[in-house]
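dumping these here so i dont lose them again. two proteins, back to back, each one seq then structure tokens. dont judge the mess
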Amino acid sequence: MNNNGAYKDSCRNGTDRTEERRSQAQRDAATVEIGYALASAAFVAAVASGFVAGPALFLPLSPGTVHALVTAGGVLAATLFPLRVVTVLYRFHRHGTPAQPSQPGRTNPDS
């Protein structure tokens, strides 16, 4: 039995639920990383779309060419946005949060 009267085997994976919870700092770091992923993805998509569709605004081109450039810019932006979000969040999940030093005042856990 654990402290709240439930048997340990009744929890998922045989672990206590309190061990699975994230700290406030970990939740805050995930929130900041999600915000960064969305903002950087919007920026990358806007720059790429502007790079492709920009000439349509400043050069005298035929209507078919303008339509093709604007469509290609939109498709590129729609592709890059989720790609950037996924790669940023995957990198964050893969590397996780840095480990705390094992002793106060030490910068390396092995020192």
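---- next one ----
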Amino acid sequence: MPAPLTLDGFRADLAEYLYQRPDEVDLDEHPLQAGLDSLRIVTLLERWRETGVDVTFVDLAECTSFAQWWQLLDARQGGTT
């Protein structure tokens, strides 16, 4: 069974695609305004699904910040982190 997604892991995943350090990721920022495009979002989505999170592109598209993404992802994995 894959390890659950943690907030630190989430930030690290975002940082990789935003070309930032994890501590530079502003969780209040809008994903598209931060520089993510749909291909990168789908790639991240697939990575997170591999950890057992049941989430779709549409679910993420309805969120307006990385913080909302994290709340959704954490809830979908049972809020265990």
